[in-house]
Specification:
52% helix
Length: 309
C-alpha cells in the first residue's frame, strides 16, 4: 500500500480519530491528565457489553474446538500480539492445561515481546508462514487480533486459516474492518478515539484484553475447569499456588487447613480430586473414576455421589 493510500485508510478508522475530549490534554497537570484517561477508560466496558453475543459465539466455537482436541491460536502484531501471548501463557497455570492448547503468536517472533518490531506487521506472508509452522487444521481456531482491523500480518494469517478449514475469529476496534470481513466470528467493540490519538495500547488494548480474558475463561469453565467459581484445575507449581490450592479446597469443602493439606498430599495436589474425596467420602481410586465418568466436571461428580451419611 502506498503512503498516500495508507494515510487515507488510517483517516477512516475510528481508533485513529482525534478525541474532542482530550484536545487540551498537553496543557493539563498530572491529576487532570489521568482523570481524562480514566474517563475514556470508563467507556470500554460499555463497548464490550455491546458485543457480548459475538463473544459468546466465539466461546462456543473455541469450546467445541477444545473438545475435539484442537487448539486456540492467537495471532497479532505489537500490543495486540503481546496481549495474545500474555493470555495464552496464563492458561497452563490457571487451568492446568498443556502449553500447546492455547498458543500466542506475535509478528516478529519472541523478541518482539520485549522490543518493538513494527515492520513485521506489514507482511501477509509472514502471518501465513507463522501459522504453517504450527500445521494448523480444521480442528483449530485462529483468533486474529488487531485494533485497526487492517494489519496485513493478521489478514494473511486469517486468510490462510480459512483455507485450512480452521475456525476464525477477528478481534478489532473498528467496524466492518478487513479482518472482520474474513473471519467466521467478528468481535468489534467500538471504544472510540483514544485519549492520545492513535495510541491503541490504551482503550483499544484494554478492550482486547477484556475480550481475550472472556474467550479463554468462559471456554475453560465450559470444559469443567471450575467448581462453582473456584479454579479447581490450578497447578500448584510454586509456593503461592500451593497455598492457593489449599485455600480452594478449604473454600469448597469447609474443611480446616490440616485436612486440606493432608488430602492434597494424597492426590499429589490434584485440587479437583481432593475436593471430590472430601465432599463425598470416596477413596482416591473411586473418586478418580467418577471424575473420569463425568468428563472432568466436578459438580456433576459431586451430585452423582452424595455422601452416605
Amino acid at each position: 500500500m502506498t503512503n498516500d493510500a495508507l494515510i487515507s485508510a488510517l483517516s477512516k478508522l475510528v481508533s485513529e480519530g482525534r478525541n474532542p475530549d482530550t484536545m487540551d490534554i498537553d496543557l493539563l497537570p498530572a491529576i487532570d491528565i489521568v482523570k481524562r484517561i480514566n474517563e475514556q477508560d470508563k467507556q470500554v466496558p460499555i463497548a464490550i457489553e455491546n458485543v457480548l453475543p459475538e463473544i459468546a459465539q466465539a466461546v462456543d466455537l473455541i469450546t467445541d474446538t477444545f473438545k475435539r482436541g484442537g487448539r486456540l491460536i492467537y495471532i497479532g502484531a505489537g500490543t495486540s500480539g503481546r496481549l495474545g501471548v500474555l493470555d495464552a501463557s496464563e492458561c497452563p497455570p490457571t487451568f492446568g492445561v498443556s502449553d500447546q492448547m492455547v498458543i500466542g503468536l506475535i509478528a516478529g517472533g519472541k523478541d518482539a515481546m520485549f522490543k518493538a518490531k513494527e515492520g513485521a506487521e506489514d507482511s501477509t506472508s509472514l502471518g501465513q508462514s507463522d501459522l504453517k509452522q504450527l500445521a494448523i487444521s480444521d480442528k483449530d481456531v485462529v483468533v486474529g487480533i488487531a485494533a485497526s482491523g487492517r494489519t496485513p500480518y493478521v489478514i494473511g494469517a486469517l486468510e490462510y486459516a480459512n483455507t485450512q478449514g480452521s475456525g476464525t475469529v477477528a478481534v478489532s476496534c473498528n467496524p466492518s474492518s478487513p479482518i472482520a470481513e474474513i473471519a467466521d466470528v467478528a468481535i468489534s467493540p467500538l471504544v472510540g478515539p483514544e485519549a492520545l490519538t492513535g495510541s491503541t495500547r490504551l482503550k483499544s488494548g484494554t478492550a482486547q484484553k477484556l475480550v481475550l480474558n472472556m474467550l479463554t475463561t468462559a471456554s475453560m469453565i465450559r470444559l469443567g475447569k471450575s467448581y462453582q467459581n473456584l479454579m479447581v484445575d490450578v497447578k500448584a507449581t510454586n509456593e503461592k499456588l500451593v497455598a492457593r490450592a489449599a485455600r480452594i479446597v478449604m473454600q469448597a469443602t469447609d474443611c480446616d487447613k490440616e485436612t486440606a493439606v493432608n488430602t492434597l498430599e494424597q492426590t499429589d495436589y490434584d485440587v479437583k480430586l481432593t475436593i471430590l474425596m472430601l465432599l463425598t467420602g470416596l477413596d482416591k481410586t473411586t473418586a478418580q473414576a467418577q471424575l473420569n465418568k463425568s468428563n472432568g466436571f466436578l459438580r456433576t461428580a459431586v451430585e452423582n455421589n452424595p455422601p452416605s451419611n
